[in-house]
Write a structure and sequence with these properties.
The structure holds two protein chains of two kinds. By secondary structure, chain A is an alpha/beta fold. Chain A contains nine helices and twelve strands. Chain A is elongated, with a radius of gyration of 33 Å. Chain B has a single domain, classed as Response regulator (Rossmann fold), CATH 3.40.50. The longest helix of chain B has 13 residues. Classes of the chains: A alpha/beta, B alpha/beta. At the A-B interface, helix 5 of A face helix 1 and helix 6 of B.
């Protein structure tokens, strides 16, 4: 197996040591040597050095001091300290502080030096690969972000045009054409799916955006965004928010949770009931927030309760959605380290209870 | 309310959306005139030439227009015609999500609000009229 091309820099005030080292290893490694700190820095600047070896006993500064000087600007090369026996405490100390990777005591053992160099180079290589992967990963994430946002915009823009045309023709012709209503419903369904996919993507990213939560505004925004839904105007909302102190959490994830549950409550209201109600009760301290959302809608059938948080599970219902909403809710609650429970039957309706701890 | 009428300036690269928005505005009680533009440069020139004649102007600007974004156009309009923009109202109209976040990120003072597409009577009544009533 051909040896990798390893670039070494060796600094020592004794020329004899440098020459001895070169004579021994010049066939295996690419070696730069110098007796001066300034020249060592020039070499580091000019060449991609993998490993730096320094003698501890030098007149201008010690090897450890030299490493301290270069480690911030040249953090990538591994550092090996060469010492005599008397400096062993300094060497141990510098290893423990992370200044050097290994130390080699003089007079050195050739096999030992080779192992140290090769181990150091393995670490150099692994770290470098890791950095490259991280850079690639970050780039891929950034591109995915851009893609998701531009794709969602490009998908939604024509959809919103269709919705505009439908609403305009309803207004202009003055009669409520049943076909137009169906187009409108389909457009909303597709739009909801696109928004769910974006929510899913946002939620799957592990980064948090923590901010103070204003539940009054949040609930207000959500109910307003749902007012297009069939039957919305006939539903009585009873909203009680008891927020005595500042509550910090991730507003995006909270919006995903609340918006999905409230839109389900609207969607599955019971048309046969005289009065449809949705009760939202939020009690919030600086440490924890309890959210209870109850409706008197059609409720869940027996056996559905255990499955509603599963991806692509769809209730046995002619009006059911894509089966992604509550899955995202569950994911978001988990990410916020909270809990969610559901109680439901077909006479009383459905109640979701959510507990979310504050984030800092 | 209902007596005050406005001149609307719509900027959007989508002809369909311009048509929809124009019709809704014409059908509303707010409308005196509607001017439509698909690019920012002609918009800027139109305002420069006609700002003495125009009063009670409402801008509805799409976020993504080909040569610059809606925020940049709003900023250019303000820079070139500070006194005129002071008397006018600028709204951003877009189908993008996270409108609030974008507005906060852009942190632009002279934009009244972000409106979601499609523009319809509901949006005009619930979002535009409260701002105009101030």
């Amino acid at each position: 197996m051909p040896k990798p091309h390893i670039n070494l820099l060796y600094i020592d005030d004794e020329e004899a040591n440098l020459n001895g080292f070169k004579a021994e290893y010049r066939k295996e490694y690419n070696i730069y040597t110098t007796t001066s700190v300034a020249e060592a820095e020039e070499i580091l600047a000019k060449h991609e050095i993998h490993i730096v070896l320094a003698d501890q006993r030098m007149p201008v500064m010690t090897g450890v001091q030299f490493f301290e000087k270069i480690r911030h600007q040249y953090s990538e090369p591994l550092r090996i300290l060469i010492t005599g026996y008397s400096d062993i405490n300094a060497a141990i100390d510098s290893i423990n502080k992370g200044e050097v990777f290994r130390f080699i005591d003089k007079p050195w053992d050739n096999g030992y030096v080779r192992t140290a160099i090769e181990n150091a180079y393995d670490i150099y290589k692994t770290r470098k690969e890791l950095r490259e992967r991280n850079t690639e990963l970050q780039k891929a994430y950034d591109e995915l972000d851009k893609f998701v946002y531009s794709a969602s915009h490009d998908l939604r823009a024509p959809l919103m045009s269709i919705l505009g045309i439908v609403q305009l023709s309803e207004l202009e012709t003055g009669n409520s054409n049943q076909y137009l209503k169906l187009i409108e419903q389909s457009v909303h369904k597709l739009d909801k799916f696109i928004l769910s996919i974006i929510d899913y993507y946002k939620n799957s990213r592990s980064d948090f955006h923590i901010g103070a939560i204003d539940f009054n505004k949040l609930i207000g925004d959500i109910t307003e965004s749902l007012n297009f839904m069939p039957g919305f105007s006939k539903i009585d909302f009873n909203i009680h928010i008891n927020q005595v102190s500042n509550f910090k959490s991730d507003p995006i994830k909270l919006r995903i949770i609340l918006s999905n549950i409230i839109s389900n409550a609207v969607k599955y209201h019971d048309k046969d009931k005289v009065k449809s109600t949705i009760d939202v009760n939020i009690t919030c301290t600086s440490k924890e927030c309890s959210i209870v959302i109850s409706d008197n809608g059609i409720g869940l059938k027996d056996g559905e309760k255990d499955n509603i948080f599963k991806m692509f599970f769809r209730g046995n219902n002619p009006n059911s959605g894509s089966g992604i909403g509550l899955y995202i809710v569950k994911e978001a609650v988990t990410k916020l380290k909270g809990s969610i429970d559901v109680e439901s039957n077909q006479t009383m309706g459905t109640t979701f209870k959510i507990l979310i701890p504050a984030l800092d | 309310m209902g007596t005050q009428k406005y001149t609307f300036v719509l900027v959007d690269d989508s002809d369909i959306d311009l048509l929809i928005n124009k019709r809704f505005i014409e059908l509303s009680e707010l409308c005196k005139d509607v001017y439509t533009f698909t690019e920012s440069q002609p918009t800027l020139e139109f305002i420069k030439t006609n700002k003495e004649k125009l009063t009670d102007v409402i801008f509805l600007i799409d976020l993504q227009i080909p040569d610059m974004n809606g925020f940049e156009l709003a900023e250019k309009l303000t820079l070139q015609n500070p006194a005129f923009v002071e008397k006018s109202k600028i709204f951003i109209l877009s189908s993008s999500i996270d409108l609030e976040d974008k507005l906060n990120a852009a942190n632009i003072k002279n934009i009244e609000a972000m409106l979601s597409k499609p523009l319809n009577m509901n949006t005009l009544q619930s979002k535009l009229e409260p701002v105009l009533a101030k």
